[in-house]
What we know:
The chain is mainly alpha-helical.
Amino acid sequence: MAPVTEDQVEAVRALVAAIPPGSVRTYGDLSSEVGLASPRIVGWIMRTDSADLPWHRVVPASGRPASGLRSRQLEKLRAEGVPIVDDRVVMKSARL
């Protein structure tokens, strides 16, 4: 993995914290905005440092959550009014 600075970690955290209920952003959106080499780095940040963040509002570009999180993430998103069809976020409607 490419080196990640504390400033980049904090920038990702700030962007995730700013996603309003009912909306989502992708790992790629956040990666591009912060200037990270890969969306996977955002995934790493989210796995290691997101307990106090609305982690469920960050999804893959496909709109389909990872299998290990799928039911919990979709439940949280549905509760916020995010449009979901066939266990996939309707990105055209929900993506910031």
